[in-house]
Amino acid sequence: MAKAQTETITVDGREVAISNPEKVLFPDAGYTKLDVVRYFLDVADGAGKVTNWAIEASTPNQLYRAGWRKDDVKIGDTVTLTDTSPARNGSPKASGGTLTLASGRKVFSGSPEQ
What we know:
The chain is mainly beta. The protein has helices at 33-37, 60-65; strands at 6-11, 14-19, 24-26, 31-32, 40-44, 50-56, 80-82, 85-86, 93-95, 98-100, 106-108.
């Protein structure tokens, strides 16, 4: 049996090995495991400084059941994330919450407690 592929990405200064990065999780859209891992948002503060935030969401199946679809968020869309849990250590990371899409539609991105 062939050895599973891994890809190493750096998250907040730490190297994280992603096993089976090419595994397709959303067949209709063609999104892979690595695509899902790379769910990030650029956030501008009041002064216009942009910081890249990592957002932890539910599993793909739970997101689909919550109303997410493959074309909901496109690169460059302006969205609003509310009711989220930011990292306790002050790093630009958060989990869960309600995402208001560019269209105005709201979708729930889950929480670690689910």
